Each structure stands twice: as structure tokens, then as C-alpha cells.
Amino acid sequence: MRWFKTLKDSILKWTKAQKTLALGLVLIVAMTLAAVFSDKGFMNVYDFTAELDYLKKSNAVLAEENTRIQKEIDALKSDPYAVEMLARDKLNMVKPGEIVYQIVRESSSPEKAR
């Protein structure tokens, strides 16, 4: 508390111009802190800008995926070959009369006899 009394005594000795200057500096510092760290401050604006950039990139990726899926849907509606390829790939279907060969790899570790 002694430092506070010393500070108070030295402030009381200041001229009116020095007191005005000190008050102005305190206000500038307070306003700067408020501008940087308040809810509508620069830091918050920067965070929102970064989030906006991320959302724009994410939106672009989703738009590309939507375009790709729409092309696939259009192909499935109009191209019989696309339907055949989907049936073969996803449903493991074959045409009548086709012979399917399945390659089975040997396991790397010998199985125990039962």
C-alpha cells in the first residue's frame, strides 16, 4: 500500500496538462483493449473471417461432390452401361452364362489342424 500512497502523492504534484495527458493515455489504452478483445473486436472478427474461409472451402468441396453425384444419377437414368457397371460393382451381379473366377490368396500363417 505504500507504493499506492507514493503514486498518489506524485500524481497530485502533476500539472493540469500532465494529468490530462495521463487521462488521455489511460483512455486510449482502454479503448484499444476494448477494440481488440471485446465481442465485436478485431480478434472476434479475425476468428469469424477464418471460420468463413473454412466454410467457403467446405461448401466448394460439397458443391463438387453434388455435381459428381448428379452426373452419376443422370448416367444411371439414361445409360444402360452405367446401370450394368453399378450392378456388377456394388451388387456383385453377373450376366447369365458368365463364369466368375475368384482368386483366393493363401494365408501367410499356417492354420492349426483340428
Could you please describe the fold and organization of this structure?
The chain has about 110 residues and is mostly helical. The protein has a domain at about 15-90. The protein is about 70% helix and about 0% strand. The protein is built from four helices and no strands. The protein has helices at about 1-10, 15-35, 40-80, 80-90. Helix 3 crosses helix 4 (about 80-90). The model has no long low-confidence stretch (mean pLDDT about 85).
**Main sheet, how many strands, which sense, barrel?**
none
Helix-and-strand structural type: mainly alpha
Order of helices and strands: HHHH
Cα separation of the termini = 88 Å
In helices, the fraction of residues equals over 70%
By DSSP (H or I, 4+ residues per run), the number of helices equals 4
What share of the residues does DSSP label as strand, in percent?
under 5%
What radius of gyration results from the CA coordinates? 37 Å
Described by the principal axes of the CA atoms, the overall outline is elongated
How many E strands? 0
